[in-house]
Amino acid sequence: MNQKKAKLCATLLLGTCLSVVQAQQASTATGGDASGSGGSVNYSVGQIAYTTNFSAAGSVAQGVQQPYEISVVTSINEASNIDLKLSAYPNPTTDYLTLKIGDAKIEKLSYQLYDVAGKLLEDKKIASPEVSVSMLNLPNAAYFLKVFSNNIEIKSFKIIKQQ
Q: In whole numbers, what is the pLDDT of the chain averaged over residues?
């Protein structure tokens, strides 16, 4: 009878310990499964810990959301005869951005400055071959400067503002 009690106590103790043990628990914002011809992966966004695995084929960072930025600088083929140059002092800029226009009729040109959310911050006509755009009161972020000829976008630039 004593052996039965010992086995029962051991079983209850083991059951209690196992119910408290939790493995690989994470509070995540979202996640899912992705698969393709190269394999499949399970992913989650919002994990606190991470590890990075390297191989000859590449690397994988597990456990954190990795930022990936796609940046496209656009131009229109019909505007190939216009020589537009952008100079930022310094790049990234801290206070003023200089836009230099070369070999173009400036009376038809204007520029617009947007934040990354697409909010129009400034819209002005270009009155000289060299324009100074003030960025003093703007927070540190990425911006887009778009140049227009007769209200048609001919060039777009990505600008970084830092302190």
A: 74
Tokens read off for 65: 């959301």
Each residue's pLDDT tens digit, 80-133:
555 555 554 566 788 888 888 776 677 788 999 999 889 999 999 988 888 899
pLDDT digits (tens, 9 = 90+) for 60-81: 766 554 455 555 555 555 555 5
- The structure tokens listed for 29 are 């914002």
Q: What is the DSSP letter of 65?
A: P
Residue with tokens 């810990």: 49
Name the phi and psi angles at 156, rounded to 5.
-135, 135
Using CA atoms, how far apart are residues 28 and 9, in angstroms rounded to an integer? Answer: 37
Query: In the structure encoding, which two tokens stand for residue 72, read together?
Result: 């496209």
Whether the bond into 67 is cis, omega within 30 of 0: no
Distance CA 115, CA 108 (A): 24
**pTM value?**
0.50
Distance CA 27, CA 45 (A): 9
Give CA–CA dist 80/118, Å, rounded: 26
Domains annotated on the chain, with CATH: 77-161 (2.60.40.3080)
Tell me phi and psi for residue 67, to 5 degrees: -75, 140
* Element at 87 (helix H, strand E): strand 83-88
